[in-house]
Design goal:
By secondary structure, the protein is of the alpha/beta class. It is built from 8 helices and 8 strands, in the order E-H-E-H-E-H-E-H-E-E-H-E-H-E-H-H. Bound molecules: ribulose-5-phosphate and cobalt (II) ion. Cobalt (II) ion binds next to strand 2. Ribulose-5-phosphate binds next to strand 2, strand 3, strand 8 and helix 7. It comes from Inconstantimicrobium mannanitabidum.
Length: 216
């Protein structure tokens, strides 16, 4: 099964409630929420009040992508706001094993994200504990960037690591995903596809999601 996770970073924030309601009625399984702190990445996006508000609109899985330093400080609050899955960056946490275990102890799913410049070998020993690995296919911080081709090799590497230990792992790809490349990413082993610009383009959310699904 291939999961679509539209990123609300590309939504029209004037009409966020309406657009999230449309995602709620769509065939997308997850909603990807990009949290940026202006420190780990050179941009600031949204935080607790927004997540809490849209939680009232939909029961879809909230796939919360934390692009923040010291994510362990904020786990309880993200869970309280309605996060179902919390993904932290490998590069942002000095004690990642502890944070993974903490998130799991709270009954929340956990993912680790890797920047384009971080090799996949760093997460090999962590995979047994994880629900998801997120391969960044753009440098984090902004939507609408071009897909980095070598990300495909990284998807294949993580897929092989999971296969070698018989682990049912979610492998998410985030950045520059569109109908022209989505099929090739699934062929590499991805099973959760984030799309921001490709979903919200021209305000044709339903049609764009259908087109992504058809391209698979
Ligand atoms: O994490 C992200 C950026 O750091 C976003 O999820 C990602 O960029 C999605 O947007 P798009 O599909 O427009 O590339
Ligand atoms: Co993201």
């Amino acid at each position: 099964m291939v999961i679509l996770s539209p990123s609300i970073l590309a939504a029209d924030f004037k009409r966020l409630g309406e657009q999230v309601s449309r995602l709620d009625k769509s065939g997308a399984e997850f909603i990807h929420i990009d949290v940026m702190d202006g420190n780990f990445v050179p941009n600031i996006s949204l935080g607790f009040p927004v997540i809490k508000s849209i939680r009232e609109i939909t029961k879809k899985v909230f796939d919360v992508h934390l692009m923040i330093e010291q994510p362990s400080k904020y786990i309880d609050e993200f869970i309280a706001c309605g996060a179902d899955m919390i993904t932290i960056h490998y590069e942002a946490d000095k004690h990642i094993d502890r944070t993974i275990n903490y998130i799991k102890s709270k009954g929340c799913k956990v993912g680790i994200a890797l920047n384009p410049g971080t090799p996949t070998c760093v997460i090999k020993d962590l995979i047994p504990q994880l629900d998801m690995v997120l391969i960044m296919s753009v440098n984090p911080g902004f939507g609408g960037q071009k897909f980095i081709e070598y990300s495909k090799d990284k998807i294949k590497e993580v897929s092989l690591m999971a296969k070698n230990i018989g682990k049912d792992l979610l492998i998410e790809v985030d950045g520059g995903v569109d109908p022209t490349n989505i099929k090739s990413l699934v062929e590499c082993g991805a099973n959760v596809l984030v799309a921001g610009s490709a979903v919200f383009k021209d305000d044709k959310i339903e049609e764009n999601i259908d087109n992504l699904r058809k391209a698979l």
